[in-house]
Structures are given as C-alpha cells and as structure tokens.
Amino acid sequence: MATAESLNNVLEMFKSLDVDGDGKLTAQELKSKMPNKGNEDLINLINIYDKDGNGGIDIIEFAQMLKVFPMRTEADKNKKLVPTKDQEDSVMKLFRVLDDNGNGYVNLDEFMEHLVNQGVPLGKQSSKQLFMIIQSKGTQEDYNPDGITYQNLLNYVVEEDFNAQDEERINYTAINNVEGLLRAAAIDGLEIDLTILQEYMSEDKNVELREVVADILNKQANEKTAADIKAAEDIKWKAFTNFKRRGERKMTIMSSPAKIQRDILPGRYELSNLVTFDDLPPIEPEHVVIKNARWEKSGENGKRGKLTLPNDFDGNIPVDIATNETLGYYGASIAEGKKSNIKVKANQVIMDFTYSENYYQEWVMDKLGGPALEFHEFHHLDTNISSDPGYWVVAKWADEEETELHVTAFIVPIRHTVYTPGGVIHTNSFLKGTWRTMLSDGAINEAALVREDGSVPNITINK
Length: 463
What we know:
- Helix content is 33%, strand content 18%.
- By secondary structure, the chain is of the alpha+beta class.
- The strands form 5 sheets. Strands 5, 8, 13, 14, 16 and 19 form a 6-stranded mixed sheet that branches. A 5-stranded antiparallel sheet has the order 9-15-12-17-10.
- The chain starts with 5 loop residues before the first helix and ends with a strand.
- Residues 67-78 and 164-168 have low confidence and may be disordered.
C-alpha cells in the first residue's frame, strides 16, 4: 500500500534523473532508467507529457507519467474512500514535519522550503502547482485558503493510494537475494542486528538466509514507523501525559496516564468516528434475569396472551439510562444518534399521547388487570417531551429456547427518541407525561404478566 511518503519517493526519483538540475527531464536523462527505449520512443514520451511545451518533463508532468496523479473515472469519483490506520499514521508523521510552527496548516512558503530541504530543483511555478493539487483535495469545507491542512493531505494520500496501487513502501519479502535486501535496508536507514539473526537461524536450521533477513527488516520497518509517530506525540503532548493534580493533603485528585489514546490533527471528522473506542468493552445495561419464563400467545389480535413467570420473581425491574449502547443490548437505539434508514412497511402516524401520574394504577392495574409486554412487526418511535417521563421498558429472550427473559426500565432524556424495531419486546405501561409516538394499527402480540401460582406481580422500578 502506498503511504504519505509517495510524494517524497517521486521527488527523489525525479532528482536522481535530473542530472543537470534544471528542473526538467530530457530524453537523454530518461534513457538511464529506460535503456530498452529508443530515442524516438523517448522523444514521443516527452511530447505526450510535456504539457507546457518547454521541451522537457517537469515534476508535475513526471508524476502524471508515473500515474501518481491520474485522472479518475466518474465511477471512481463516486466511491467513498476511507483512510486506513496506516495511512492516518503516515500522514500524521509527514504533516508534523511540514507544519513546523504547529498552526494546523502548511502554507506555500513552508511547502517550498520542504522541497528545497529535500534537494528537489523545482521552480516556483511547479511548486505552487503541486501545492494547489494537494490543497484542493477534499470537500469545499475542507478547503483552507491559507494552506494545506491535515485533511487535505490525508484526502490526497487516500486518493493516490486508490489510483496508484503499485506505489508501495519497500516490501522486503519481494527482494530475492540478500545483497538486494541489504542495499534496500541502507536506503531505508535500517541495519541487521547480528544477534537477532543468529537467534532466527538457531530456531530453524532449514530456513533460508534471505527469508530471515527479509522478515527482520519488515519488522524493523514497521517498528521504526511506530516509533517515529510516538516520538512526535511524546514531544507535543508531554505536558498532558502523566498529568496529576493534588489536593490540600497532597492526595492525587486528578490524573492522566502516560498513554495518549488518539492524536487528533486539525481537519474534518465524523463525530461518531472520533468517539469510537475499540479498546473499551461493550456496555451491558442493568437488567433483571427471569428464568423459566414462558410466553403463550392468544392467537387472536386484540386479545392478551400470557407470560408466565416463576413464583420467586419479586417484580423489581432495575433502571438504566437510555443510550445507543444500553438500548443496543435489546436491539433498540436512540434515533437522534443513528445514521440509518428504516423501511416502514405499512401506513403509520405520529401523535402525542399524555400519560397521567395515575396511568399505571388506574388503567394498567385496575382496568387491564396488570402489566403486559408486547411485540409486533411495525416499528415504534417514541419521543419524550416531558421532564418526568416515567420509564420505557424493554425486554429480550437471552436463549434460543426463550425461557430466560432479561428486562430493563430505561430513563429516556427529554427530546430524545427511542427507536424500537419490529420484533423487540417492550411496554408503555410505565410511561408518564407526554410522548410523541409513531404507531400503527397492525397486529400486536401482547402477553399479561402472571406468576405460576396465578398471581399478578406488583412491578416496582428500582431507581
């Protein structure tokens, strides 16, 4: 895979060919790298790529010739290009070098200074053209008139990786002799540790020396990249690592570990990507486990079935806060925090319903004879628009046999909407205040809660 060093690789190659250092390649200079091409072929090649007609190929034209900056097809343009972790790391490393003053962007002077420091004989016009190519990468919102941002550079690298799959970092396993490996290692600034080499050889007497050397160099190259990134982090964020605040008794009352979780450079990001942390374990909401439960359907729409619970169920249901993580345990979510489409299979309406303080006692218990759980094919959307909303209760079967039931009573923050997909078990029996609900007149599977001895459990919500 190509890396952010692709640009430097092209510049170095151009520099090695440009013998007289005039910033353009002639047919004679190209001959050294293309010995099998005749003079006529090389002249034709120059005529094709010499867009400004100066009689040679400058750096921009050379890059186009190598397909580092190819034109993308319309189909390609419609593809969403997502950066990999390797791309982000390599771009971060390069951007820190370019953005010497740390203001979040690289202006033209800084960019040209970098080219000069690399020893590339590129004129001001060509430098500016290259600068503008990178600066233009991304959306209009990514554009900064003052210079190249991290996001511009990242967009550029991702696009070039897509268009130039053959522009790779040194792949030592592809080099078929030890002499070539050592030459490549010298270019990459790597050295073979003889102690490690001896350990490899002693572990497997049959392994080839070339394979051993290639494996060692590949690992060293990966470690070198990681070390360079960590060194840059350590310098910039030294004040925040191992941070401590102490109280009056010299006790630590605030601290931070040595490790930085992520280093975020200036640019545009999806908020959800910034707060997705793979190192954190999944959240399981507080819930009651009811074993030996049994759901009996009535088989008739509008008529309650029966959900038989063991006699030792005390009726207590624990409470948790409704978030995408906690609701996700049951297959539900907070609609405002999800980017997804849903299919509404039948006509539904959105209406406001107000539940009084006495709704549970006077309707659920006295009128219906006790609480129930339900599920149905249509989706629910329920938006809390009150300061005292009661509880949205959700449940699920934890086993394939459908005998172990998990139940949670959720507190839904005001002006947040619970999306309960079709098939998810739930109840509105414990709601208060006003809720804006999307519902349907479709068939509902509802089951009254009953203990094995026939008694109705008195449900209490554990706050």
